[in-house]
Design brief:
Layout lengths: L5 H4 L9 H12 L5 E2 L11 H12 L12 H15 L8 E4 L2 H12 L5 E6 L5 H6 L4 E6 L10 H6 L5 E7 L11 H13 L3 E5 L23 E6 L12 E4 L2 H13 L6 H13 L3 H20 L5 E3 L6 E5 L7 H12 L1 E2 L1 E2 L10 E5 L4 H22 L1
Parallel strand pairs: 1-11, 3-4, 3-5, 5-6, 6-7
Antiparallel strand pairs: 2-8, 7-8, 9-10, 10-13, 12-13
Helix pairs in contact: 3-10, 4-10, 11-13
The protein binds pyridoxal-5'-phosphate.
Pyridoxal-5'-phosphate binds next to helix 5.
Length: 393
């Protein structure tokens, strides 16, 4: 085989590999063991039935052809309306472009604002694909942690200290995967000031915006930010549609127009029947309220069960699909903790350090299981944490 490009060879998983725990848990579950999987971030339920019916009707209705590059006009209108609700800024269809999932929106945003050799700041803990999305663009990046003891909120002074002459963008995610932190208005205002001061793009990943605890604050709504913010959005989490691969990017019209050219050489538009089903799901908010309520109830169940536990501290965990627990008082090595929890109590969780240094000493628990399963997992965790301490003593 001739040599592959260094660009493609360079896209390799980085950092500590917490997925080993996940894969071990999954293999043992497949083999018939009573393993509770709290390591994955995908819904345990199907897409709402109205969305499925809309897709079946659309596919039977001859919608089998190419669609316009930035998305069907109806889909862009529905996405613009959702962006208005998400960001609090009146959004026109020309300010959105449909992409195959939020990941493709992230990829497009990074390709759109960074040239080879440019520098970006990635606020951590972050979603696992972020570093490689920058590497794929030939861009350099610095990871700036959000301190756990600060509830994983971003710190403008730490971000400012990482800015270089060639820094072009900052990437944030709120509500956050993996910490569940919901960035406060005050911290976002401070971050916005840094962006304005240094004329930076803000790439704002808001795919969990419907799953926050309270009001969702988008940095796009802050003074002077609409012209420099690209919002990454998706139907995966809000509408229960991870496998449908539908997301969008929202930003200044001039930038979105340029992005259409990227679609020309990548996706060349999206499937017509999926686009129609997604339009209908967005217009009618199919499943959105129910899914948000389901995760809110699960979060309450798990946090209530954990709050009484000795030596286990809840950090972040205000929104999204995850809860982050500081287990360092039980065992400072989170990987060791996760392996022992799997071996002794058959619960699979993600070690925090797989998401960056700031999450070391933590475990990430996914809420993608029904309430009784989460209650049982909490019981096992309690038993494990108390006996583990006794052994250590
Ligand atoms: C923070 C964050 N951004 C983006 C994505 C990408 O989601 P999708 O490509 O399914 O829309 C995910 C998926 O887990 C995520 O957690």
């Amino acid at each position: 085989m001739p040599r592959p490009s260094s660009r493609i060879s360079g896209i390799v998983p980085s950092g500590k590999d917490g997925w080993e725990v996940h894969f071990a848990a999954w293999t043992r579950k497949e083999a018939g063991e009573d393993i509770i999987m709290l390591s994955v971030g995908d819904h345990d339920f199907d897409t709402p039935s109205q969305t499925i019916e809309a897709c079946v009707t659309a596919v039977r209705g001859s919608n089998h052809h190419y669609t316009p590059l930035p998305g069907l006009p109806r889909l862009r209108r529905a996405m613009a309306a959702a962006s208005t609700a998400c960001t609090g800024v009146e959004t026109s269809p020309d300010q959105v472009i449909a992409t195959p999932g939020g990941q493709a929106a992230l990829y497009a945003a990074v390709q759109g604002v960074l040239d080879q050799g440019d520098h970006a700041i990635v606020v951590a803990p972050y979603y696992a694909t972020y570093p490689n999305t920058f590497s794929a663009a030939g861009a350099d990046f610095t990871v700036v942690e959000t301190p756990a003891e600060d509830g994983f909120q971003p710190r403008a002074d730490m971000i400012r200290a990482a800015i270089r002459p060639n820094t072009r963008a900052i990437l944030i995610n709120t509500p956050n995967n993996p910490t569940g932190a919901v960035y406060s208005r005050e911290r976002l205002e401070q971050l916005a000031e840094v962006c304005r001061e240094h004329d930076l793009w803000l790439l704002s990943d808001e795919v969990y915006w419907t799953l926050g605890g309270g009001e969702h604050v988008s940095p796009r709504s802050l003074p002077g930010m609409a012209e420099r913010t690209l919002v990454i959005n998706s139907m995966s989490k809000s509408h229960g549609m991870t496998g449908w691969r539908m997301g969008w990017l929202n930003g200044p019209e001039e930038m979105i127009t340029l992005m259409i050219n990227l679609n020309l050489v990548t996706t060349y538009g999206l499937p017509a029947f999926i686009s129609i089903a997604c339009s209908e799901a967005l217009e009618n908010r199919y499943g959105v309220k129910e899914i948000a309520e389901r995760y809110a109830a699960r979060r309450t169940v798990l946090l209530d069960a954990v709050r009484g536990m000795n030596d286990v501290t809840v950090r972040g965990s205000e929104g999204g699909m995850y809860v982050m627990l500081d287990i360092s008082a039980v065992e400072p090595d989170d990987e060791k903790f996760a392996w022992a929890l799997l071996d002794n109590e058959k619960v699979g969780v993600m070690p925090g350090s797989s998401f960056g240094e700031a999450a070391a000493g933590h475990i990430r628990i996914s809420l993608c299981q029904p309430e009784p399963v989460l209650r049982e997992a909490a019981r096992r965790l309690r038993r494990f944490a108390s006996s583990y301490r006794r052994e250590a003593a």
